[in-house]
Write a structure and sequence with these properties.
With 207 residues, the protein is an alpha/beta fold. The protein has eight helices and seven strands; from the N terminus they run βααβαβαββββαααα. The protein has one domain. Helix 5 packs antiparallel against helix 6 and helix 5 packs across helix 7.
């Protein structure tokens, strides 16, 4: 992954969790601020990405694809991010925390091969340009959730598909393409996709 930030739209997080997600990566600024370590880039998936897109439900786990372009070792970056939980206050003043999910891997579920073309950059609080945080598109987050497909994942998918900017036909096309080259149980994933489309169609008919 090598991303040119000038090519992508930006979004300003406007919730406590959204702002905390940006601040979560600020621990890396001393490493990359001078520019001699290259550039750090992260693409956020999972519950945090769902929240950025929908402002619904939160997540304590930060699922992210992490890449270092330069001289900083990824394992050192992960260790720094995983050193301690990031604590913040939600809109009600209740203490919450964010922690890096070190077990996250984009190969664990289906994901379209050109997902990077649809990402959005989170506007950072810092002037350091070398730490870049992106969020996967609503469509790609929904596709990735076809893998585990628990009750929470199914609710997240439906919430993402109901966003005004999401095209259900594009979602189905990209999902089928992603499933076609997924290394795993494709039959189960196609069944999950059919269930998602059925639930979406059923809720549309009832409105």
């Amino acid at each position: 992954m090598s991303i040119d930030p000038r090519k992508y739209p930006t979004i300003q997080p406007n919730t406590a969790l959204g702002r905390a997600l940006v601040a979560f990566f600020d621990v890396l600024e001393p490493v990359f601020a001078q520019g001699d370590k290259g550039v750090f880039q992260a693409i956020v998936f999972g519950g945090c990405a769902v929240h950025i897109h929908t402002q619904s439900r939160g997540s304590a786990d930060v699922d992210a694809e992490l890449v270092s372009h330069g001289y900083a070792d990824v394992s050192d970056i992960v260790a720094l991010l995983d050193e301690e939980a990031y604590v913040f206050e939600d809109e009600e003043g209740v203490s919450q925390m964010l922690e890096l999910d070190t077990s996250f891997n984009t190969t664990l579920g289906p994901l379209h091969e050109d997902y990077e073309t649809r990402i959005t950059r989170l506007v950072t609080q810092s002037s350091v340009p070398n730490v870049e945080v992106y969020v996967a598109s609503a469509v790609d987050v929904a596709i990735s959730k076809l893998g585990r497909f628990g009750d929470r994942d199914q609710k997240d998918i439906q919430a993402l598909l109901r966003l005004p900017r999401v095209d259900i036909e594009e979602f189905e096309r990209l999902a089928r393409e992603a499933i076609s080259y997924y290394v795993g149980d494709q039959v189960r994933l196609r069944g999950n996709l059919s269930a998602v489309l059925g639930d979406y169609s059923g809720s549309e008919d009832s409105t």
